[in-house]
UniProtKB/TrEMBL annotation:
The lineage of its organism: Eukaryota, Viridiplantae, Streptophyta, Embryophyta, Tracheophyta. One of its GO terms (biological process) is response to hormone. It comes from the Eukaryota. One of its GO terms (molecular function) is calmodulin binding. Coiled coil: none annotated. Keywords: Metal-binding, Ubl conjugation pathway, Zinc, Zinc-finger. This is BTB/POZ and TAZ domain-containing protein 3. InterPro entries: BT1/2/3/4/5, BTB/POZ_dom, SKP1/BTB/POZ_sf, TAZ_dom_sf, Znf_TAZ. The keyword Zinc-finger applies. Residues 268-364 form the TAZ-type domain.
Protein backbone atom coordinates (compact mmCIF):
# COMPACT_ATOMS: atom_id res chain seq x y z
CA UNK A 1 0.00 0.00 0.00
CA UNK A 2 1.36 3.31 -0.95
CA UNK A 3 1.35 5.84 1.77
CA UNK A 4 1.32 9.54 1.75
CA UNK A 5 0.86 12.06 4.44
CA UNK A 6 2.22 13.92 7.36
CA UNK A 7 5.25 12.46 8.94
CA UNK A 8 5.85 14.43 12.04
CA UNK A 9 5.96 13.24 15.56
CA UNK A 10 5.02 15.64 18.25
CA UNK A 11 3.94 15.33 21.75
CA UNK A 12 0.81 17.33 21.83
CA UNK A 13 -1.10 18.55 24.80
CA UNK A 14 -4.56 19.91 24.37
CA UNK A 15 -6.79 21.31 27.05
CA UNK A 16 -9.28 18.72 28.08
CA UNK A 17 -7.46 15.99 26.24
CA UNK A 18 -4.03 15.20 27.45
CA UNK A 19 -2.44 12.71 25.16
CA UNK A 20 0.68 12.12 23.29
CA UNK A 21 -0.03 12.03 19.64
CA UNK A 22 2.06 10.95 16.79
CA UNK A 23 0.53 12.50 13.71
CA UNK A 24 1.46 10.19 10.97
CA UNK A 25 -1.57 10.56 8.79
CA UNK A 26 -1.71 7.65 6.42
CA UNK A 27 -4.24 7.00 3.78
CA UNK A 28 -4.53 3.56 2.34
CA UNK A 29 -4.77 2.90 -1.41
CA UNK A 30 -3.49 6.34 -2.13
CA UNK A 31 -1.07 6.24 -4.99
CA UNK A 32 -1.13 9.91 -5.70
CA UNK A 33 1.24 12.22 -4.01
CA UNK A 34 -1.36 14.96 -3.73
CA UNK A 35 -1.65 14.80 -0.04
CA UNK A 36 2.01 14.28 0.61
CA UNK A 37 2.71 17.19 -1.65
CA UNK A 38 0.17 19.34 0.07
CA UNK A 39 1.80 18.62 3.36
CA UNK A 40 5.32 19.19 2.23
CA UNK A 41 4.96 22.82 2.99
CA UNK A 42 8.32 24.25 3.69
CA UNK A 43 8.92 24.64 7.37
CA UNK A 44 11.50 27.29 6.76
CA UNK A 45 10.21 30.77 7.18
CA UNK A 46 11.45 34.00 5.72
CA UNK A 47 14.36 35.14 7.80
CA UNK A 48 14.09 38.88 7.99
CA UNK A 49 15.09 41.37 10.56
CA UNK A 50 11.79 43.13 10.91
CA UNK A 51 9.53 42.55 13.83
CA UNK A 52 7.30 39.55 13.58
CA UNK A 53 4.36 40.80 11.55
CA UNK A 54 1.10 41.09 13.37
CA UNK A 55 -1.38 38.36 12.48
CA UNK A 56 -4.14 39.78 10.31
CA UNK A 57 -7.46 40.22 12.07
CA UNK A 58 -10.16 37.66 11.57
CA UNK A 59 -13.15 38.54 9.45
CA UNK A 60 -15.93 39.72 11.76
CA UNK A 61 -18.24 36.82 10.97
CA UNK A 62 -15.51 34.27 11.55
CA UNK A 63 -14.62 35.86 14.88
CA UNK A 64 -17.97 35.30 16.41
CA UNK A 65 -18.80 32.07 14.65
CA UNK A 66 -16.98 29.42 16.67
CA UNK A 67 -18.65 30.46 19.89
CA UNK A 68 -22.06 29.53 18.54
CA UNK A 69 -23.28 26.23 17.25
CA UNK A 70 -23.09 26.11 13.51
CA UNK A 71 -26.75 25.31 13.06
CA UNK A 72 -27.87 28.70 14.28
CA UNK A 73 -25.70 30.46 11.73
CA UNK A 74 -26.67 28.44 8.72
CA UNK A 75 -29.12 29.46 6.05
CA UNK A 76 -29.68 25.82 5.20
CA UNK A 77 -32.95 24.60 6.77
CA UNK A 78 -32.42 22.59 9.90
CA UNK A 79 -34.23 19.63 8.36
CA UNK A 80 -31.80 19.49 5.44
CA UNK A 81 -28.83 19.40 7.76
CA UNK A 82 -30.50 16.75 9.86
CA UNK A 83 -31.10 14.65 6.78
CA UNK A 84 -27.45 14.82 5.83
CA UNK A 85 -26.38 14.17 9.39
CA UNK A 86 -28.69 11.16 9.44
CA UNK A 87 -27.26 9.91 6.17
CA UNK A 88 -23.83 9.99 7.76
CA UNK A 89 -24.94 8.44 11.05
CA UNK A 90 -26.94 5.62 9.44
CA UNK A 91 -24.74 5.11 6.41
CA UNK A 92 -27.81 4.23 4.35
CA UNK A 93 -26.76 3.02 0.90
CA UNK A 94 -23.07 3.48 1.72
CA UNK A 95 -20.61 2.27 -0.90
CA UNK A 96 -17.39 3.19 0.89
CA UNK A 97 -15.95 1.81 4.09
CA UNK A 98 -13.44 4.00 5.83
CA UNK A 99 -11.09 2.07 8.07
CA UNK A 100 -9.83 4.17 10.98
CA UNK A 101 -6.91 3.97 13.39
CA UNK A 102 -8.62 1.61 15.86
CA UNK A 103 -10.07 -0.56 13.08
CA UNK A 104 -13.57 0.81 13.32
CA UNK A 105 -15.34 1.26 10.02
CA UNK A 106 -17.17 4.41 9.03
CA UNK A 107 -19.64 3.79 6.19
CA UNK A 108 -19.78 6.60 3.64
CA UNK A 109 -20.87 7.46 0.11
CA UNK A 110 -18.35 7.86 -2.67
CA UNK A 111 -20.47 10.53 -4.32
CA UNK A 112 -20.61 12.67 -1.17
CA UNK A 113 -16.92 12.28 -0.47
CA UNK A 114 -15.99 12.87 -4.08
CA UNK A 115 -18.07 16.02 -4.38
CA UNK A 116 -16.63 17.45 -1.18
CA UNK A 117 -13.01 17.18 -2.24
CA UNK A 118 -11.07 16.21 -5.35
CA UNK A 119 -8.35 14.75 -3.14
CA UNK A 120 -10.95 12.52 -1.60
CA UNK A 121 -12.37 11.71 -5.04
CA UNK A 122 -9.00 10.50 -6.31
CA UNK A 123 -8.53 8.58 -3.17
CA UNK A 124 -11.89 6.85 -3.35
CA UNK A 125 -11.56 6.20 -7.09
CA UNK A 126 -8.32 4.36 -6.56
CA UNK A 127 -9.57 2.34 -3.61
CA UNK A 128 -9.94 -1.42 -3.71
CA UNK A 129 -13.47 -2.58 -4.45
CA UNK A 130 -14.89 -5.67 -2.85
CA UNK A 131 -18.51 -6.70 -3.25
CA UNK A 132 -19.37 -3.25 -4.49
CA UNK A 133 -17.81 -1.53 -1.47
CA UNK A 134 -14.71 0.64 -1.76
CA UNK A 135 -12.25 0.37 1.12
CA UNK A 136 -10.12 3.29 2.18
CA UNK A 137 -8.01 3.87 5.25
CA UNK A 138 -7.47 7.02 7.23
CA UNK A 139 -4.83 6.25 9.80
CA UNK A 140 -2.58 8.28 12.04
CA UNK A 141 -5.34 10.25 13.74
CA UNK A 142 -7.80 9.01 16.38
CA UNK A 143 -10.86 7.38 14.89
CA UNK A 144 -13.05 9.95 16.67
CA UNK A 145 -11.31 12.68 14.71
CA UNK A 146 -11.93 10.81 11.48
CA UNK A 147 -15.59 10.44 12.45
CA UNK A 148 -15.98 14.16 13.15
CA UNK A 149 -14.22 14.91 9.87
CA UNK A 150 -16.49 12.72 7.76
CA UNK A 151 -19.60 13.99 9.53
CA UNK A 152 -18.56 17.53 8.71
CA UNK A 153 -18.22 16.58 5.06
CA UNK A 154 -21.85 15.43 5.10
CA UNK A 155 -23.64 18.05 7.13
CA UNK A 156 -21.15 20.72 8.22
CA UNK A 157 -22.29 19.82 11.73
CA UNK A 158 -19.89 19.45 14.59
CA UNK A 159 -19.76 19.56 18.32
CA UNK A 160 -17.85 22.49 19.77
CA UNK A 161 -16.18 20.43 22.50
CA UNK A 162 -15.16 17.72 20.06
CA UNK A 163 -13.74 20.40 17.84
CA UNK A 164 -11.64 21.66 20.73
CA UNK A 165 -10.41 18.20 21.64
CA UNK A 166 -9.50 17.20 18.11
CA UNK A 167 -8.73 20.60 16.62
CA UNK A 168 -5.17 19.73 15.67
CA UNK A 169 -6.08 16.39 14.13
CA UNK A 170 -8.93 17.95 12.23
CA UNK A 171 -6.63 20.65 10.94
CA UNK A 172 -4.36 17.97 9.50
CA UNK A 173 -7.31 16.13 7.96
CA UNK A 174 -9.01 19.20 6.53
CA UNK A 175 -5.74 20.44 5.09
CA UNK A 176 -4.82 17.07 3.64
CA UNK A 177 -8.20 16.59 2.02
CA UNK A 178 -8.70 20.23 1.13
CA UNK A 179 -11.88 20.78 3.12
CA UNK A 180 -11.31 24.48 3.46
CA UNK A 181 -14.44 25.38 5.43
CA UNK A 182 -13.46 22.92 8.14
CA UNK A 183 -9.87 24.08 8.03
CA UNK A 184 -10.97 27.65 8.78
CA UNK A 185 -13.05 26.47 11.72
CA UNK A 186 -10.18 24.39 13.08
CA UNK A 187 -7.78 27.29 12.87
CA UNK A 188 -10.21 29.55 14.73
CA UNK A 189 -10.85 26.98 17.41
CA UNK A 190 -7.12 26.32 17.88
CA UNK A 191 -6.37 30.03 18.09
CA UNK A 192 -9.09 30.70 20.59
CA UNK A 193 -9.28 27.56 22.69
CA UNK A 194 -6.42 25.16 22.14
CA UNK A 195 -3.24 27.18 21.98
CA UNK A 196 -1.25 27.09 25.21
CA UNK A 197 2.37 27.65 26.18
CA UNK A 198 2.62 23.87 26.49
CA UNK A 199 1.71 23.13 22.88
CA UNK A 200 2.78 26.36 21.15
CA UNK A 201 5.76 24.70 19.46
CA UNK A 202 3.69 21.77 18.21
CA UNK A 203 0.98 24.06 16.94
CA UNK A 204 3.56 26.22 15.18
CA UNK A 205 4.99 23.19 13.40
CA UNK A 206 1.55 22.01 12.48
CA UNK A 207 0.43 25.44 11.30
CA UNK A 208 3.42 25.66 9.00
CA UNK A 209 2.89 22.18 7.64
CA UNK A 210 -0.77 22.82 7.08
CA UNK A 211 -0.20 26.20 5.50
CA UNK A 212 -1.96 28.27 8.16
CA UNK A 213 0.06 31.50 8.17
CA UNK A 214 -2.10 33.43 10.63
CA UNK A 215 -1.92 30.63 13.16
CA UNK A 216 1.87 30.41 12.63
CA UNK A 217 2.25 34.08 13.43
CA UNK A 218 0.11 33.82 16.52
CA UNK A 219 2.28 30.93 17.73
CA UNK A 220 5.44 32.85 16.92
CA UNK A 221 4.25 35.84 18.92
CA UNK A 222 3.38 33.62 21.83
CA UNK A 223 6.74 31.82 21.74
CA UNK A 224 8.73 35.05 21.65
CA UNK A 225 6.59 36.60 24.38
CA UNK A 226 6.64 33.59 26.70
CA UNK A 227 10.03 32.33 25.67
CA UNK A 228 11.23 31.42 29.15
CA UNK A 229 8.24 29.23 29.85
CA UNK A 230 7.95 27.73 26.37
CA UNK A 231 11.65 26.92 26.04
CA UNK A 232 11.33 24.61 29.01
CA UNK A 233 8.41 22.63 27.62
CA UNK A 234 8.59 19.11 26.30
CA UNK A 235 7.57 20.36 22.86
CA UNK A 236 10.62 22.62 22.71
CA UNK A 237 12.96 19.81 23.72
CA UNK A 238 11.59 17.52 21.03
CA UNK A 239 11.76 20.30 18.43
CA UNK A 240 15.37 21.10 19.38
CA UNK A 241 16.40 17.60 18.48
CA UNK A 242 14.27 17.13 15.41
CA UNK A 243 14.38 20.62 13.95
CA UNK A 244 17.48 22.59 14.98
CA UNK A 245 16.89 25.08 12.18
CA UNK A 246 13.58 26.08 13.72
CA UNK A 247 15.20 26.41 17.12
CA UNK A 248 17.80 28.70 15.60
CA UNK A 249 15.12 30.77 13.92
CA UNK A 250 13.10 31.14 17.11
CA UNK A 251 16.19 32.12 19.08
CA UNK A 252 16.92 34.81 16.50
CA UNK A 253 13.42 36.17 16.93
CA UNK A 254 13.92 36.28 20.69
CA UNK A 255 17.29 38.02 20.37
CA UNK A 256 15.75 40.56 18.05
CA UNK A 257 12.89 41.15 20.42
CA UNK A 258 15.38 41.71 23.26
CA UNK A 259 17.45 44.14 21.27
CA UNK A 260 14.30 46.06 20.33
CA UNK A 261 13.43 46.19 24.00
CA UNK A 262 16.90 47.51 24.84
CA UNK A 263 16.59 50.10 22.12
CA UNK A 264 13.29 51.22 23.52
CA UNK A 265 14.74 51.50 27.02
CA UNK A 266 17.64 53.55 25.64
CA UNK A 267 15.26 55.84 23.81
CA UNK A 268 13.22 56.32 26.94
CA UNK A 269 16.37 57.14 28.91
CA UNK A 270 17.35 59.70 26.32
CA UNK A 271 13.91 61.20 26.48
CA UNK A 272 14.15 61.37 30.26
CA UNK A 273 17.50 63.17 30.10
CA UNK A 274 16.14 65.55 27.52
CA UNK A 275 13.16 66.28 29.75
CA UNK A 276 15.41 66.90 32.77
CA UNK A 277 17.55 69.30 30.75
CA UNK A 278 14.49 71.07 29.50
CA UNK A 279 13.21 71.49 33.06
CA UNK A 280 16.62 72.75 34.21
CA UNK A 281 16.62 75.34 31.43
CA UNK A 282 13.15 76.53 32.37
CA UNK A 283 14.09 76.74 36.04
CA UNK A 284 17.32 78.58 35.29
CA UNK A 285 15.46 81.18 33.30
CA UNK A 286 12.85 81.44 36.03
CA UNK A 287 15.45 81.94 38.78
CA UNK A 288 17.41 84.50 36.83
CA UNK A 289 14.37 86.39 35.59
CA UNK A 290 11.85 86.25 38.46
CA UNK A 291 13.91 84.90 41.28
CA UNK A 292 12.75 82.12 43.50
CA UNK A 293 12.51 81.78 47.27
CA UNK A 294 15.94 82.97 48.41
CA UNK A 295 17.73 83.51 45.18
CA UNK A 296 17.05 85.84 42.31
CA UNK A 297 18.24 88.60 40.02
CA UNK A 298 20.18 91.39 41.68
CA UNK A 299 17.55 93.99 40.89
CA UNK A 300 14.81 92.22 42.81
CA UNK A 301 14.13 91.79 46.47
CA UNK A 302 12.71 88.45 47.52
CA UNK A 303 10.42 87.74 50.41
CA UNK A 304 11.99 84.54 51.61
CA UNK A 305 10.20 81.31 50.94
CA UNK A 306 6.71 82.73 50.46
CA UNK A 307 6.71 82.36 46.74
CA UNK A 308 5.19 79.10 45.68
CA UNK A 309 7.30 77.68 42.90
CA UNK A 310 5.92 75.47 40.17
CA UNK A 311 9.24 74.55 38.59
CA UNK A 312 10.20 71.01 39.52
CA UNK A 313 13.91 71.54 38.87
CA UNK A 314 14.07 74.79 40.75
CA UNK A 315 15.10 73.58 44.17
CA UNK A 316 18.07 71.59 42.93
CA UNK A 317 19.11 74.38 40.65
CA UNK A 318 18.90 76.94 43.42
CA UNK A 319 21.43 74.95 45.42
CA UNK A 320 23.61 74.68 42.35
CA UNK A 321 23.46 78.42 41.63
CA UNK A 322 24.22 79.17 45.26
CA UNK A 323 27.19 76.86 45.17
CA UNK A 324 28.36 78.34 41.90
CA UNK A 325 28.38 81.83 43.37
CA UNK A 326 30.62 80.90 46.27
CA UNK A 327 32.75 78.03 44.94
CA UNK A 328 36.47 78.77 44.96
CA UNK A 329 37.40 76.50 42.09
CA UNK A 330 34.73 77.63 39.62
CA UNK A 331 36.60 76.63 36.50
CA UNK A 332 35.30 74.24 33.85
CA UNK A 333 36.54 70.80 34.70
CA UNK A 334 37.18 71.84 38.30
CA UNK A 335 34.34 71.11 40.69
CA UNK A 336 31.70 68.73 39.38
CA UNK A 337 28.87 71.00 40.56
CA UNK A 338 30.39 74.00 38.85
CA UNK A 339 31.04 71.93 35.77
CA UNK A 340 27.39 71.14 35.61
CA UNK A 341 26.50 74.77 36.09
CA UNK A 342 28.82 75.75 33.28
CA UNK A 343 27.18 73.21 31.04
CA UNK A 344 23.74 74.57 31.85
CA UNK A 345 24.82 78.15 31.23
CA UNK A 346 26.45 77.16 27.98
CA UNK A 347 23.42 75.26 26.87
CA UNK A 348 21.20 78.19 27.75
CA UNK A 349 23.31 80.64 25.78
CA UNK A 350 23.04 78.36 22.77
CA UNK A 351 19.29 78.21 22.84
CA UNK A 352 18.36 81.60 24.27
CA UNK A 353 16.19 83.52 21.86
CA UNK A 354 16.36 86.94 23.50
CA UNK A 355 20.02 87.36 24.55
CA UNK A 356 19.73 91.15 24.57
CA UNK A 357 17.32 91.21 27.49
CA UNK A 358 18.32 87.97 29.13
CA UNK A 359 19.27 87.98 32.77
CA UNK A 360 20.94 84.58 32.80
CA UNK A 361 24.66 85.08 33.56
CA UNK A 362 27.05 84.79 30.60
CA UNK A 363 24.19 84.56 28.16
CA UNK A 364 25.68 86.73 25.48
ZN1 LIG B 1 11.49 78.53 41.53
ZN1 LIG C 1 32.11 74.46 42.48
ZN1 LIG D 1 19.68 84.00 27.80
Amino acid sequence: MAQGGVDSSWSTALPGASFNVCFDLRMGEDKTSDVAHALEVSTSSPCHNDNIPKPPPLPVAACSKPKVKLLSFSYVPKETMETWDKLFMEGYGADVHILTEDNTIIPAHSSVLGVASTVMRNYVTQAKVKDGIRYIKILGVPSSATGIFIRFIYSSCYDQDEMKNYGLHLLVLSHSFSILSLKRICINVIEQSCLTTENAIDVLLLARQCDAPRLSLICLHMIVKDFKKISSTEGWKVMRKSNPALEQELLEWVVERDSKKQELIKKMEEKKIYLQLHEAMEALLHICKDGCRTIGPRDKLLKGSQIACGFPACKGLETLVRHFSVCKIRVPGGCTHCKRMWQLLELHSCICNEPDYCKVPLCR
